[in-house]
Design goal:
This protein has helices at about 10-60, 65-85, 90-125, 135-140, 145-160, 185-190, 195, 200-230, 235-260. It is flat, with a radius of gyration of 27 Å. By secondary structure, it is mainly α. Helices cover about 75% and strands about 0% of the residues.
Length: about 260
């Protein structure tokens, strides 16, 4: 006799989850506030100390040397302005929060996809023992659409803050006048434009999530049909799609972690 079992999501469990979420959110906000206060105080102290050193040093220089230093400072300020022109964005605690959100998004994406990998690998290996627990890693795949939304949203909103190689100045050997060398130019990164190009990179980002989700959905559907029908065609179909997934996973998951997981 087959007994149908259903998981009951009780009101007590809901309250515990909500309470844990609220407590974590409050603690995160407290941590952000504390770190931000310390960083602000450190910057003020550093700025005050730097000002004192500058005043003391200026008092010891001659007038001619002061004028020369002033010219150099203006030139340096101009170059610094050119250098920082393409780097406007989040700083300090805001930048740290953005990077942490990105790392978390990539981390949980990995958990979701590895759950699908576990199912696919056991189908290919004809492992019978995993049938008792396969519903757990199968459920990991439900997070893939949410991972896609969070990862893609963070990428498009904060790509300039997250990725050093996404700054346009790295690919231009000269400044706007076409003559002055660009101090930000990086010939190594510029040589990888074909791979880091915006169009190709964005295409891969969407392709990864679409392929992962489609194969997981097929495996999940076959798994449910296996429980309702005695036909082996669903099992054979799962083996076929598992082989497809392993090829996809082996070909792009490493580059997903390498490319999307790297934050400057």
């Amino acid at each position: 006799m087959v007994v149908e079992e259903k998981f009951e999501f009780t009101s007590g469990a809901k309250k515990k989850i909500i309470t844990t979420f609220v407590a974590g959110l409050v603690l995160a906000l407290i941590g952000i506030f504390v770190i931000g206060s310390r960083s602000h105080g450190h910057e003020e102290a550093h700025g005050a100390g730097h000002s004192k050193e500058t005043v003391a040093a200026s008092a010891q220089h001659h007038d001619g040397h002061e004028a020369n230093a002033h010219d150099h400072a203006e030139a340096g300020h101009h170059e610094g302005g050119e250098h920082a022109e393409g780097h406007h964005g989040a700083t300090g605690i805001a930048l740290r929060v953005i990077k942490n959100l990105w790392h978390n998004s990539v981390f949980f994406t990995g958990i979701a996809v590895i759950g699908v990998f576990f199912i696919a690998f056991n189908y290919i290996a004809q492992a019978g023992w995993s049938a008792a627990i396969k519903r757990v890693p199968e459920a990991f795949g439900y997070y893939i659409p949410f991972a896609a939304v969070s990862t893609i949203a963070l990428f498009f909103l904060f790509k300039q803050d997250l990725f050093h190689w996404y700054h346009d100045g790295l690919y231009n050997p000269f400044l706007a006048d076409g003559k002055t060398p660009n101090p930000e130019y990086d010939p190594i990164i510029a040589s990888k434009t074909w791979y880091l190009g915006k169009g190709f990179y964005i295409f891969r980002l969407f392709a990864y999530f679409i392929l992962w989700f489609l194969v997981w959905f097929k495996l999940r559907t076959n798994s449910l049909n296996e429980d309702l029908n005695a036909d082996l065609k669903y099992h054979d179909s799962s083996i076929f799609w598992s082989a497809i997934f392993l090829i996809i996973w082996g070909g792009n998951f490493f580059y997903f972690c390498l490319g999307l997981g790297y934050v400057s």
